[in-house]
Design a protein that fits this description.
The longest helix is centred in the N-terminal third of the chain and has 21 residues, at 61-81. The protein is of the alpha/beta class. The chain has helices at residues 24-30, 61-81, 95-107, 139-143, 149-152, 176-185, 192-198, 200-211, 245-253, 278-291; strands at 4-10, 37-39, 42-44, 48-51, 84-90, 113-118, 166-171, 188-191, 217-223, 261-267. The relative contact order is 0.18. The chain is built from ten helices and ten strands.
């Protein structure tokens, strides 16, 4: 990694039923879990840009998230234009609509963008299929061009992601409508059941091979609920029998020398559900695993 890192705190919980994750980025700062890095023969402590949604009592969640994701997209694109590497820290996973729309504004000049989406859920509802209406259950569908135009059209009518370059990893909780949508689009989903059969390392290589076929490179979006809740309790929608943190950390370490990764996103940290800062510490470890030039003890 040859670019300076910048943190972007996506401090919104508007897309989730439990909006405590909106305080995730602020809590990471207050508890001292924003990591420093050893890069370019120096110690580097990245700055943080903290973004909050507008405070409007009359706005709908869709309107608030639309405005927030537009702001986030602009911030991410600006950092990329300044040769920085954005690490977006959420906040609920609807922030992904803004993160990757911002990346797309820059990456589209190089070709299509790939994605490794690490999540317990498919995040592929649309407003028509979602019973809860929670927008953090919709970001992947949105980025694939499906759903509310206020969110799908942040960059015009062109979809941010091409399904043939997208792979979901760690899925174990979903609804039929989501599965049908992803099947119809041809998105590869590697469930936890499949991971248990083939092993995480093999599944990881499959996901990378799919995402890295995109000409422009790829991004990594991690919903912390993909990880087993024993190791990552601080999430709003925990699902049992998840990815082991050690395996994900080791997988991210294999990417240290790659220059085709645009950004890293880690979402759904809910400090009010964390135990002894276990999940906050894991977030720091995940960023170190991918981005620190020295191996952490």
């Amino acid at each position: 990694m040859h670019r300076d890192i910048v943190f972007v705190g996506a401090a919104s919980g508007w897309g989730a039923q439990d909006n405590g994750c909106g305080d995730g980025p602020k809590t990471l700062v207050e508890r001292g879990y924003l990591p420093c890095f050893q890069q370019h023969d120096r110690s580097y402590c990245p700055p943080l840009t903290l973004l909050r949604p507008m405070n409007s009592p009359h706005a709908t969640p869709l309107e608030v998230i639309g405005q927030f994701c537009q702001q986030l997209a602009t911030t991410v694109a600006d950092h990329l234009n300044n040769q920085k590497f954005p690490v977006v820290l959420g906040g609920d996973h609807s922030c992904a609509i803004g993160t990757w729309s911002g990346v797309h504004r820059i990456s589209r000049h190089h070709g299509q963008l790939g994605m490794v989406w690490i999540d317990a859920h498919m995040d592929s509802h649309t407003p028509d299929s979602s019973q809860s209406g929670a927008i953090h259950g919709m970001p992947l569908a949105t980025l694939l061009g499906q759903g509310a135009s206020l969110l799908t059209d942040l960059n015009g009518q062109q979809a941010t992601l091409d399904p043939k370059h997208v792979c979901l990893l760690g899925v174990r909780s979903y609804e039929t409508a989501e599965q049908q949508l992803l099947n119809s689009l041809g998105v590869r989903v590697i469930s936890m059941a499949e991971i248990q059969k083939i092993g995480f390392s093999h599944a990881w290589q499959q996901a990378l091979s799919i995402a890295s076929t995109a000409k422009a490179g790829f991004g990594i979006s991690i919903d912390l609920d993909a990880i087993d809740p024993i190791e990552a309790p601080g999430v709003g929608s925990p699902e049992e029998n998840g990815i082991h943190a050690k395996e994900l950390l080791e997988a991210l370490q294999t990417l240290k020398q790659r220059d085709d990764i645009w950004a890293l996103e880690i979402a759904e940290y809910n400090p009010y559900r964390d135990h002894n800062n276990t999940t906050a510490e894991l977030m720091a470890q995940l960023t170190h695993a991918l981005l620190n030039e020295e191996t952490q003890p």
